[in-house]
Specification:
By secondary structure, the chain is mainly β. The protein contains two helices and nine strands, in the order H-H-E-E-E-E-E-E-E-E-E.
Length: 236
């Protein structure tokens, strides 16, 4: 109310001054700002808006569209070995290879000898019987100086002897100083013969020979050789 009175008085003074003062004076000092006005009336209701986007799955975060593939990362550490897979099908056989160089294996897989007494004298008592006349001696496995056969091809061998007797005879067949057989004939007749044989397994470098025992009536002459033989049956 007081504010309106001030406005009215101000307006009247302005009219009186204009009528009484022919010359316009200096502008007055700006008045005090007025109080804020009241809120205006509510506006009219606006038009209906467009429908919003529909959410799927409630109010949780929604999955966006699939993005473009990212750059390849660094190689990871090597994992543990998996189980061995099943064997695959056999491949096609390749062409035959070229022939190899000739070897000496075939020669070493053969072993045989036959040797005879080269004298009509009886061998010494309890000694190695030496057969000095060579009939067959592949690879020189039988040594005529020592009277021993040395094995170079491991396997099963057969040894045999055939003796022309001039008296009673008892011989031993030994393998590395181990007795493997004895053959004795205590009967004596003119032009008598005796023989014996056996199969035995030999390892490399083992030796076989024959020895006399008490009786040593073995002869070696053209009309009645005494022969010692051996040969490889099967290599191992």
């Amino acid at each position: 109310m007081l504010y309106h009175c001030f406005l009215l008085i101000g307006s009247l003074l302005s009219v009186v001054a204009m009528e009484t003062c022919p010359t316009t004076g200096m502008p007055g000092i700006p008045g005090i700002p007025g109080m804020p006005g009241r809120d205006g009336r509510e506006g009219e209701k606006g038009e209906k808006g467009q429908p919003g986007a529909v959410l799927h799955g409630g109010l949780d975060l929604q999955k966006g569209e699939k993005g473009a593939p990212g750059m390849m990362g660094y190689s990871g550490k090597r994992g543990q070995n998996g189980e061995q897979g099943k064997s695959g099908l056999s491949g096609i056989a390749g062409p035959p290879g070229e022939p190899g160089d000739p070897g000496a294996v075939g020669v070493r897989l053969k072993a045989a000898f036959s040797v005879a007494r080269g004298t009509h004298e009886f061998p010494e008592k309890a000694s190695v019987i030496r057969f000095t006349k060579v009939i067959t001696n592949i690879n020189d496995d039988y040594n005529t100086d020592s009277g021993h056969f040395r094995c170079w091809v491991p396997g099963t061998y057969y040894f045999a002897f055939h003796a022309s007797l001039g008296n009673k005879l008892c011989v031993l067949m030994k393998l590395d100083h181990t007795l493997i057989a004895s053959f004795c004939d205590h009967r004596y007749r003119r032009q008598q013969v005796t023989s014996g044989g056996l199969a035995v397994y030999l390892s490399r470098n083992q030796e076989v020979w024959m020895e006399t025992k008490d009786y040593r009536g073995m002869r070696g002459q053209e009309n009645g050789y005494s022969v010692f033989s051996g040969f490889l049956l099967h290599p191992h």
